[in-house]
Amino acid sequence: MKIKLLSVLCLLNLFMGYSQQKNYDKEIEQLLSKMTIEEKIGQMNQLNFNGMSDNLVQQIKNGEVGSLLNIINPKEVNELQKVALENSRLGIPLIIGRDVIHGFKTIFPIPLGQAASFDPQTVEDGAHVSAAEARELGVNWTFAPMLDISRDARWGRIAESLGEDPYLAGQLGAAMVKGFQGKNLSDPTSIAACVKHFIGYGAAEGGRDYNSTNIPPHLLHNVYLVPFKKAIDTGAATLMTSFNDNDGIPASGNEYLLKDVLRKDWKFDGFVVSDWASMTEMLAHGFAKDAKEVAKISANAGLDMEMVSGAYSQHLKALVESGEVSIADVDNSVRNILRVKFRMGLFENPYVDTNKASVLYSAEHLQAAKEAAIKSAILLKNDNILPLKENIKIAVIGPLADAPHDQMGTWVFDGDKNHTVTPLKALQTTYSNINYVYEPALTFSRDKSTANFDKAKQAAASADVAVVFLGEEAILSGEAHSLSNINLIGVQSELLKAVKSVGKPVVLVIMAGRPLTIERDLPYADAVLYNFHPGTMGGPAILDLLFGKANPSGKLPATFVREVGQIPMYYNHFNTGRPAPENVMTLDQIPTEAGQTSLGNTSFYLDSGKDPLYPFGYGLSYSTFDYSNLVLSASSIPMGGELTAKVTVKNTSNVDGTEVVQLYTRDLVGSIVRPVRELKGFQRVDLKAGESKTVEFKLTTDDLAFFGRDLVKKAEAGDFDLWIGSSSKDGLKAKFSIL
Description:
The protein has about 750 residues and is α/β, with parallel strands linked by helices.
């Protein structure tokens, strides 16, 4: 009976997987055979919705529109879908796109913050909440997750990323795809995901948005493509090209990426959309002379749908007629688009159920957002000041203590700041028992006025502890918001110093869209709790952490540099031929008239040393954890074999906590140079006070494969180091070999 039940379950799982990935070949070919060239090009055309108009209705009737952006009125969505289904010749529904990046109405921490949770389930849950809320208003397609590997905090869009590590970004990106798309794209609470930006956008030179990149093939395949491959394998429905050129070829015209890698190697059968006008931006790049050539380049490269810029609708028909673009390539693009529309169930029902009970800002959604904000917070410093006791008086100071708009973070189109619960608002509601005095001192993060500093000092003097809320406004990160200086902006550092001068303990709470250079601020804070913009429920989440109702467990998804001149600095770097020793001679230690070779001739900065301020994977807790008894199942494994690594982790404190246990490896010798460490696994482990658990990881040789000298992905025989610990800079160490 048990065997029969398992067989039925296996068949059911196979059927469910097949139903989601069904190709709909027969339906697609029947529809395609009826389409005129104009109707085919119409499917490849995406317009931005600028309000209902007779012209738009006529375009939809004519079959000239495949997708609309930025329409969030269910009544209007239904009207236009009805036109598409009932009044156009072939009845092909529209895909309705909208940027739903880290929440729709209920706003979750920015993606970089979610990455700090090291928790795929939290990321999946957040995406599912976002999808359910977006579908309520008619949106069925989002342009997320952003899987650009980000190694430069000057780049504003690091906020949208999942950090600097390809393994972490891949695991969390896949979770986000699952959350958006659910078990079936046709589910009424699912929306299609669009992984972006393909490829290399996060490597923009100098951290300047839209800038060129120069990523060589091995780095491209071993780092930048890794999370995209994971998301595609997970079933991501669509993909977006990036703005940048890499090595002189703009992404929206890169045939190698779109045809060879994406279609041939990865077998992707969804569709590819350009970023906003990124096709016609090839004119500014100097890659095409006019819009007609733009259409030719992108169509021949395999770009299926054009976002807003109109080169396809204006020129593609003539290009097909002249033979400069193959009708076969056009047909393939239309097949890809129709396949996704069929999988989304739009042909059966594209309409919004306006009678369904609203889930916007539901209690369950708000609780999920709060839990995500708690798990995303990183405790960077704690000189025995946190958690705070509830019977003390606190001074609440700073411009981010009550900034409901900025707390939501970048790229929020639909969140309402009136629903944001700030730390100050939480003190007035759920934490109304706390005695506090409030003095913002600054009206916003860029404020340069010191006029209210004395008020801030008086507030601190009247309290037992000062909690200073500093950081960035939402507008200072995100697209087109790059910075060359990533210190706390304005006079915020001076405010912190002024508060500290009173002599009371100081807790610094930061809300920001990127890793800031805060080394200069650390001496003036007894504790530092770092929050990448935490979203709607950031206030109560932060107070739960400050007062010990929750225990910090977040870990850094990106390296924190000491100063901006260290950028790029990331944990999984190459060793170089002259790696720096543990202790290096810094600027102030150099004797006068020193010999030219007296510094050791190794790779480091004379002024800022060799190490970052905080490494990838770092994060403190109110608990303390001890690692012991690292044991490998074997000292060597054959090619194709599997290794088990076990370690004992003990909570050595009297506080229940969660530790993110991290596994790293190093391939000591390869056909190309290998990184000094690579994240290969992580687990969130809950441990009660005094409790020990054995944590187990499994590694196969496939997990250790990389694109070597011949650009073929495979593992190579040789020796490896392995670490299990609490960050990329520590851990118990073992060795093994692949035979």
